[in-house]
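Justification of computing resources. Each target in the renewal requires a structure prediction run like the one illustrated here; the chain below, 192 residues long, is used simply to show the kind of job we budget for.
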Amino acid sequence: MPVKKFFDEYEVFEQMHWLCFHLEFEHSNYDPDEPCDDPSCPWNVGKRELMIDIHHDLKIISFDNKSWMDFDFIEAEAERYPSICFKIEIKKNGTEVLKKSIWFEKDALDGFLKALTEFDKAGKGDAFLESMSPEEFSLSIETVDKAGHIVLFYKVKSQRVAYQKMMENSINDYFEIELNQISNILKNLKVF
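Resulting structure tokens:
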């Protein structure tokens, strides 16, 4: 049947429906008829409360306006998994690096915002955020010299099947941002 719901991520999901992709690559060693530990597993729906709302939340733009990171809020889970999902899009010099939905633990996001609050007050520091799935996505924002240059470092790991083999791709990159971006992140993400 034609893919409708996640059509914009058709290539990411190996030209499959998301459910097929989940059962094939993300459901791990769990029985297909039982829930796995992935919060987005369809068998977990009904066991959790969902707040679903898709809107644009945050765009972190580089100092030279050539690179950026978009965070679009997708959903939050209230009970079983205190977590938040963002659709993240990264562009480096106008070229797409990543377009993917990524889950973060609410505690990790809260710790990141707390560190950014201190950063915002002092005008220097560092803050770190990592996805729920180990090594899938992380970003750190830090001052890198006495002149106050602030750099956003990101690391992305993705997997896909090619020629019947699981291929892994890893990206380690960065771009410089201005201090006012810290306040922008705090203002836009504090709602969680």
